Amino acid sequence: MEQVNLFPFWLSLKTALISTVFVFIIGMMIAYFVAKKDFFGKSVLEAIIMLPLVLPPTVVGFGLLYLFGKNGFIGKWLMAQFDVQIVFTWYGVLLAAIVVSFPLMYQSAVAAFQQYDRNLEYVAYTLGKSRWNVFWTISFPLAWPGLLSGTVLAFARALGEFGATLMIAGYIPNVTDTIPIAIYFAVESGEMGVAKFWVVTIVIIGFIAIYWLNWWSRKHMMKHKQ
């Protein structure tokens, strides 16, 4: 088999981990607010958040390229203010991973915050507990199974992102070549051994993540039934 450069593995792992931390924090905050509040435009906001889940990845990538490119208003602002370029850099890889994995985290988090009895929170408020204290002692523990599920799914989605990443970050060896991109260009260049190696690698990682989540969920449900 051809010699395999392990850079795509470390880049994909780093990107998936960092993007998952980001979408966990932001997704949990937005989901908690949306789940507890009714406000004008709520349905529109949720539709916008979930849009990357149903759009073709190339469309998502084009949107990111349009906004964060050198001529995009966000891209221009970042370059002028911070001298930061998103397109064809690792930042583009990270941005694509965040955008495509965010809906999975948000969807799971909203469901998690809506499934338990809110009277438990109201009782805590009547006892003088602050919102911050109620969130971390009641809301977060009760919603944790759903939050964990969203986290694992978001990680797996970020790890396997291809279309949007290729649009905004391109293929630059040892800079933006994640595992999915490495697979595509290995096949394009006829390096089938390298492609098979990465296919097996990402399938194993994805299988382990989903298998562990299912195992943990069953164990958690059995524990609460006892």
Give a description of the structure.
By secondary structure, this protein is mostly helical. It has a single domain, classed as MetI-like fold. 79% of the residues lie in helices and 0% in strands. It contains 10 helices and no strands. The model has no long low-confidence stretch (mean pLDDT 93).
CATH architecture field: Orthogonal Bundle
Which series of helices and strands comes N to C? HHHHHHHHHH
Q: What is the CATH third-level topology name?
A: MetI-like fold
**For this structure, what is the CATH homologous superfamily?**
MetI-like
Q: What is the multimeric organization of the chains shown?
A: single chain
> Radius of gyration over alpha carbons?
20 Å
- Report low-confidence residues grouped into runs of 5 or more: none
Number of domains: 1
Sheet with the most strands, sense and barrel status: none
How widely separated are the two ends?
Answer: 52 Å
Shape: globular
Can you give the helix content as a percent range?
over 70%
Please give the number of β-strands.
Answer: 0
What class, by secondary structure content?
mainly alpha
* Mean residue pLDDT: 93
